[in-house]
TrEMBL record:
Assigned protein family: Belongs to the class-I aminoacyl-tRNA synthetase family.
TM ranges: none
Stored SUPFAM superfamilies: Nucleotidylyl transferase
Catalytic activity from the UniProt record: tRNA(Trp) + L-tryptophan + ATP = L-tryptophyl-tRNA(Trp) + AMP + diphosphate + H(+)
Uppermost EC category: ligase
Enzyme Commission identifier(s): 6.1.1.2
CDD domains: TrpRS_core
Any GO CC annotation of this UniProt entry: cytosol
Protein name from the UniProt record: Tryptophan--tRNA ligase
Domain of life: Bacteria
Alphabetically ordered keywords of this record: Aminoacyl-tRNA synthetase, ATP-binding, Ligase, Nucleotide-binding, Protein biosynthesis
A Pfam family it matches: tRNA-synt_1b
MF (Gene Ontology): ATP binding; tryptophan-tRNA ligase activity
Length: 335
């Protein structure tokens, strides 16, 4: 029986953090044995808001490859590829652009949020504005059946389904698949500062590459209950980032429940809560950190594997491009 296809990926703009780990990376590791998995390094999209710093994007590709290796993505089982090396993605992007309006993109909640965060609302680079369509082209370049994502990326999957459906309906063909989303956690992993989202630009992330000392420092900066002045004051667990992280990383459920009960009663302090949190998080992240150090020594080999993967994807995407061109009556070499 033929395996279904998965595609997901990341923009190379820096190292990955625990939000990526819980939102997508662990799913990729789990599913690489069950599906034909493709992981995209979206360097062209990264250039849409880093075009004046290409060195950062180039170096970040290596960071991503090391993070992938560290969490357990097997480059023999998973096809890792680099976006700029698959020219067919950009051709698919052009064809799909006919099926989406400027107004639709402007109402995309992710775009609206990112434009505000980056201060681009009054002067928006076209490349950045159009990147949601480029993401759709990424997914459809291999006709993925399933896309592991964080909750904040669900609009991208719906856009992909919509554009695939429009193309197929317009030309009365079944060329493009409508993928399903697989969400890693019910909500995004919050930042250490209490922000709903963890991100590189927000300076509130715990990175997979952080050493033990840095991890401890960040854990002890985690937002708790601002109204709790003394350790003997009854505290609030809901919205408390320390307990949100305990729920994600602490496998000792009895300890977590006990800490929550004591916190509500005012019989345990933030220091103890965070000390136990550090121990729990470090037990999960230490093996990843160790493998990442190993990856640093073989990063050129990992790059070679990613370039091999790019050739494989290019061949697959060419088949899809040819079918799209045939549907649009522009495949002049079709026999």
């Amino acid at each position: 029986m033929e395996k279904k296809r998965i595609l997901t990926g990341d923009r190379p703009t820096g190292k990955l953090h625990i939000g990526h780990l819980m939102g997508s990376l662990l799913n990729r590791v789990k599913l690489q044995d069950e599906y034909e998995q493709f992981v995209l390094v979206a360097n062209v999209q990264a250039l849409t808001d880093n075009f004046d710093n290409p060195g950062k994007v180039r170096e970040s590709i290596y960071e991503l490859l090391c993070d992938y290796y560290a969490v357990g993505i097997d480059f023999e089982k998973t096809t890792v590829f680099i976006q700029s090396e698959v020219k067919q993605i950009h051709e698919i992007f052009v064809y799909l652009s006919n099926f989406v309006t400027i107004q639709q993109i402007g109402h995309n909640p992710t775009i609206k949020t990112e434009l505000a965060q980056k201060g681009m609302e009054q002067s928006t680079p076209l490349g950045f504005f159009m990147y949601p369509v480029h993401q759709v082209a990424d997914i459809l370049s291999v006709n993925a059946d399933l896309v592991p994502v964080g909750k904040d990326q669900l609009p991208m999957i719906e856009s992909t389904r919509d554009l695939a459906r429009k193309f197929n309906t317009t030309y009365d063909v079944e060329v493009l698949h409508e993928p399903e989303a697989l969400v890693g956690v019910e909500k995004n992993v919050p930042g250490i500062d209490g922000n709903e989202k963890m991100g590189k630009s927000l300076n509130n992330a715990i990175y997979l590459a952080d050493d033990e000392k840095i991890l401890r420092e960040k854990v002890f900066k985690v937002y708790t209950d601002p109204n709790r002045i003394r350790a003997t004051d009854p505290g609030t667990v809901e919205g408390n980032i320390a307990f949100a992280y305990h729920d994600l990383f602490n496998s000792n459920r009895e300890e977590v429940l006990s800490l929550k009960e004591k916190y509500r009663k005012g019989t345990v302090g933030d220091v103890e809560v965070k000390e136990k949190l550090f121990i729990a998080m470090n037990s999960v992240l230490a093996p990843i950190r160790e493998k990442r150090m190993e990856a640093e020594k073989i990063k050129e080999e990992l790059m070679s594997k990613a370039l091999e993967g790019s050739k494989k994807v290019s061949n697959e995407a060419e088949k899809i491009v040819n079918k799209m061109k045939s549907a649009m009556k522009i495949n002049f070499y079709e026999k």
